[in-house]
Amino acid sequence: MQYAARQPAVRRPQITAGPFPVLSSAARYAALVIVAAGASAGFFAWYVGASRAHALTSDLALALFVVAGSLG
Question: pTM of the predicted model, to two decimals?
Answer without folding.
Answer: 0.63
